[in-house]
Amino acid sequence: MYTSLVEVVKNTEFEDNNKYSQSDMKKRLTVFLVGMFLAMGTVLAQNRITGTVVSADDGEPIIGASVLINGTKNTGTTTDIDGKFTIIVPKGKKIKVSYIGMKETIVSPQNGMIIRMNSDATMMEEVVVTGMQKMDKRLFTGSSTKISAESAKLDGVADVSRSLEGRAAGVSVQNVSGTFGTAPKIRVRGATSILGGSKPLWVVDGVIMEDVVDVDANDLSSGDANTLISSAIAGLNSDDIESFQILKDGSATSIYGARAMAGVIVITTKKGKAGQSSVNYTGEFTMRLKPSYSTFNIMNSQEQMSVYQEMQQKGYLNYAELSNAASSGIYGKMYQLISQYDATTGQYGLANTAAARADYLRQAEFRNTDWFDLLFSNAIQHNHSVSISSGTDKAQTRASLSAMFDPGWTKQSNVERYTASLNSNFNISKQLTFTMISNASYRKQRAPGTLSSELDPVTGAVNRSFDINPYSYALNTSRALDPNEFYTRNYAPFNIFHELDNNYMDLDVTTIRVQGELKYKPITKIELSALAAYEYAGSANAHNVLDDSNQAESYRAMNTSTIRNNNNYLYKDPDNPYALPISVLPNGGIYNKTTNKMNDWTFRATASYNDVYNEDHILNLFGGTEINRIDRSADWFRGWGMQYNMGEIGAYAYEVFKKGQELNTDYYSMTNTHDRSAAFFGNATYSWKGRYTINGTIRYEGTNKLGKSRSARWLPTWNVSGAWNMHEEPFFNALKSVLSHATLKASYSLTADRGPSYVTNSLPVIASSNPWRPFTGVKETSLYISSLANSELTYEKKHEFNIGAELGFLDNRISVEFDWYTRNNYDLIGVATTAGVGGEVQKYGNIATMKSGGVELSVTSTNVKTKDFTWQTSVIYSHTHNEVTDLKTSTRVIDLLQGTGYSLQGYARNSVFSVPFMGLNNEGLPTFLDQDGNVTTTGIYFQTSDEEKFGFLEYSGTADPTTTGSLGNIFKYQNLTLNVFITYSFGNVVRLDPFFKKSYNDLTAMPKEFANRWMVPGDENVTAVPVMASSRQNKNDSNLSYAYSAYNYSTERIAKGDFIRMKEISLSYQFPRKLIEPLNLSNASVKLQGTNLFLLYADKKLNGQDPEFFNTGGVAVPMAKQFTLTLKLGI
Amino acid sequence: MKNNSILIFKPLVWLALAVFLFSSCDKFLDEMPDNRAEVDSDTKIEKLLVSAYPDRAFIMITEMSSDNVDDYGENNPNTDRFVDEVYHWQDGTEDDNESAEAVWAASYSAIAAANQALQAIEGLENPEDVAMQEAKGEALLCRAYNHFVLVNFFCMHYNEATSSTDLGIPYMEEVESTLQPHYERGNVAEVYQKIERDLEEGLKLVGESYYEQPKYHFNKKAANAFAARFYLYYGKWEKARDYATAVLGSQPKLMLRDWAYQATMTQEYEAIVNHYIASTLNCNLMLCTGMSAVGMAFGPYMYYTRYSHGAYLANNETGNAQNIWGSEGYYSPMKVYGATNLDRTIFWKLPFLFEETDPVAQIGYYRTVYPAFTGDETILIRAEANVMLNNYDAACEDLTTWLQNINKTSYVLTPAKVQAFYQPIAYSYDDDTKMNSTIKKHLNPAFTIDAEGSMQECMLQCVLGFRRIETLQTGLRWFDVKRYGIEIVRRVMDDKGQPVTLVDVLKKNDPRQAIQIPQKVLSAGIAANPR
Fold first, then answer.
1. Which terminal CB of chain B, N or C, has fewer other CB atoms within 10 Å?
2. pTM for the structure as a whole
3. Which of B73, B84, B88, B87 is closest to B341 using CA atoms?
4. Residue A522 is nearest to which of B1, B111, B354, comparing CB atoms?
5. CA dist., res. B47 & res. A36, Å (int)
6. Of A25, A590, A710, which is closest to B360 when you measure between CB atoms?
């Protein structure tokens, strides 16, 4: 009663008194005392009405809508931040609700009523959720796209981030690996940094989601084990997500200023609604297709064996070489069988006769092993989720559970994931509301055992020891091998199926997120909010190398004295001059354990003020402060001699520690990092009649990341922007029959990022180490300067100018959004080449600048709309380009040739260069144009960093796509919906697999183009595939590896990365109510979806290689072609 | 409502709150982002000085640049681009763990650690404590030594006449704290003066009280040995002699390598080379480690065999050549290897070892350990200083001690015998082909020595010859070549291992004696060595 009277007083008597100065308050109080009595009298004759104004489109409240008594000009109120209003209405009067961009609504008053307003420009969403604020879309001046989770969701793809591909202009999603838990490479408006990840910030329900481990954007494609925990949101159940809001330009992201340089993706989870109770079940059943050799360019076993025959003629694959070789296949096995005497039968494994050998090889010739069929599976992945939603005016709750079971597309790749979430909102009093969100997930995953890959700087080849990735195994292994046979790898017996069973990783990932937010409204126009959130993420990765695995066995392979001397995995005691190599792993296997933990606390306090003066002047103020604390810890341990077969007991040889000390090898490690940040921010928006809006934001942020220097840690960021809602202009009415909506926007901003996580040296970084020493007796520990101080270290920054237009035609049947932006990225961290006099020749520092820009266009159109049939089309196009304008760094030729790209001044970031191929010579060896303008075979200097010698390299293009987008069509006929969704990506180049070598072994599978290789003089006129070098050629020229490396990096071995992909075809059916009501269901639907079905276009040179995917082995597999059946039931 | 409103809109309250928040934020942000250390205690300063020694070796470049190797021809495939360039005195283009850039960075990195330690000592409450004074001594010695390596490697050798204009190297006395500061090279004379200053102060302070591994630090004897070598290179003969005496003490033989004992050991390569670098030996005054393939390049491996200390060099110039003591052999004779593409005659000295950062993936670095200072080299320093001081008898006494220690001979050198033996021998490269070898080479030092054939010149030939044998495969010969302006050749050997083609000559003042500043450093604005 007390407050409502004040409202009455305020709204009736002092309508235009909105200034809350101290003196005003005093005045108001006295007036209140007088007015109380006056008001008392009228209350009896009037109805006090409380109601809520929401948008009909999405049910979100409308803030600041004007609620008037129909027929009056000034008698009324405005809605608060929740869309609520209270008004005293004389009997018999109606109320009129109006809001900019909405159709005016006149209704009869009724207490507790919800007034749904329809937009007069239906394409507009009403609210932009920036994570911190809900902004009225009409007053929003930034560039942003809202995607409803329902329309974007890719059924059967558990990681929601992948579903953003092609959904928003300016957002590119590259599925560099399809393994669950690995993050796709997501870019919002392209790269913003030279070395940094340019990874967008994920904000879930207002809180920034942090990664457990920092995996650099390039490392996402590495296939290393830590990519399995690179996705910050793999623990989110896609069924819990309401919408994505992608904030693109500086105006939209500026509230996150010093972290938001690469864009922000805001996820809003589903909430319970008042007055609605429902239980929903969603089940997804997914079958993935096995890859097939028919789509790849791999030799069959017959072609393969003929190549081996040629190798034998050229002096390879002979008995002497293979019997003690580290790795061998068909031929090595043959020689082993020949010398293998079975005492019981009195026979050799294979008779040493020409006929027996020929017969053995003939069997191999007809074998045609289908590794894909054997290593992959069609087993069904299924995901079940159940949610309950309920609510009253006092409290609303939504709870959900989900469980996903994936038996694995490949062997040893099964996943189970469980999630739970609880989202509750309590209206404690009229002024006080409390929201609680909690979310937990647990993931149990198995993956083939993998070690980290290493780049050989001399040849540029990427190596991974003991790689057993099923996909790359199937692609790279000769089809002549018998899948049931053991061949030789690292001197020990090897069979892929046996190895996968005995060498695997078990991953446990847990995330828990709890957050609470208290909102307090002392008066209608002011809202105070306090939010506290805590997140825990933990992962444990146990890499089990079992007793019988090839990896363990190779530590004790010493069958012959030659092998004993050559096997590097054996250990020779330096203290004993007579020592023979021994095994440090006489029994058991190797148990490796890596754990990562993250604790993340966020506290935020904000205040907002919303007001409308005289109906014409709209003012929103928002400000607050946030502190954030993240502690991460990682530890690693390697246990030697774990006897998995003997009841899991560790039985290690003491020599393993002696060897470790002598070779300076860690057997355990620990890393703790601590992030602290604090920020103050404020935002002001003013709009006149909703026609002209101006907006400004300031954020002042500090972090400990740049080190303990107080000068470097603080950074202010800001933006100014404006919008012109042309359709609100009186003159626009004449156009409205055709052009129903038109908004123009412009913004200019400064945003920033902290740069790569490893650059923290505003003060010197002193680290500890164990310097290498030859013997255990002379070891000591040390401290050393791991990074010299750089007092000039600062944030990476970006100025951005954005112009946007939103147009709606024919009553918004066709809507068009267009954005153009230009960016100046500066203070970017690069590798500075210094005089080295401080002790480091190359140092990280803010030395680079980059210019970038782009255009974005999205068009949606409802082509046909009848009672039964609708057809909607959406086209999304975005183009981004960048150029590194200043980067004085030292680059080697080899860096410029890598398929991942490298940044060179004057070129796009991540540019790829190639060695100019000049045809084959009369020996079949490749020739190139070299740094001095001569034609050469082995004279390419990969390591030179002399920039004057870079001129000969040919620019091939960039590694990042420049044009991305999609074409979607949705056809609805009654309850049937057909969705055909095509994504495309253009503008990048891809390095073909670096297949060519100076010599090959009898395990490798060869591409079919190898059949066209140079065989006899004269072939150089018809083929560009170089000769298989004979052992004599190799002996004569020890540098031949340079020729083959150069060929792998030549203009001949590069392809366009362009593709058009049939991303999704789905057909869904919504059961009619009549049918399901007897079953007590409120809704039921079924959907069949095909995902990633085929490529409509890709460069022929790729020969089946997926242009999005980096085949780097380890845990990387491409996205599968899959079919998903989805069943949805609701009560 | 009233109270709330007032609280919210009172500017003073807000301001106070903001100030409070802001100052407490700064404290909040002082948390270190990772487990880095702050050098704020005695122990941490001592540990920091462990990294004030270079972890790279200059040996590969200086040995391959010197006259201790010949080119066995382009049909020998055991080489790479890095060593091809080094051998031919070309400016380096290749990245390598032992490239000029690695030497440059490793030395300056060690200097940075020393400077950081000195800065930290200044910041302590009790910088005058004994341990911290000793630490200051060690830091100064490390700073001096690393600059000494740099100036001799990258500059023309010190000489009185031209060093005040010869390009030096920047002498770092502070820790770098900005991204790309500009440096001037200064001149060689300045660098030598600063080394002398740091060395003298360091010598006064240095102690051994806190060393866990004294042989991997500047212990007192190592510091004196460094001073002896420094003054020898500086041409200050008395000081060189005196500091050498401080190392050798009254019974110099006890400070020499026990070659006789080594001969009784099992003649296994790995056993011998591990013994060679043992920290328990008196002769090993200070040991350094380096990422280096010298163990392979100068060991019994088919590695870098294109450029090799072959039989021709051994038999005509170095260890196995006809020499003053006659035919008696070494306790540990040079090992002779011959095969296709292999002509190598070596002492077993530096080991080839491996640091394995990941034993499962087999990733790591080649490593070696080398004695930075030895008693054996120091006794030859004293001999050389005495020759320059015209104390020939004293010099002969040291030469005899050295000789009888490495060789089974009982031959005693006298000045007269030295002159008698060396005077008639022809000089290398004086024949028609300009590339044939003898054990003598023309000396053209910047300082004055007596004429060729004089007693002093013959004594110098003897000392330098002994030094060459002593320092074979450890990279020091190159500095003797520079100090004495010795002209050396690049020649190709035929398949019989005899010189066949003369390719290049390093003249006495050849600018290529100063190894070129690394490419990246040049691009950062450091002046290049003239070519």
1. C
2. 0.83
3. B73
4. B1
5. 79
6. A590
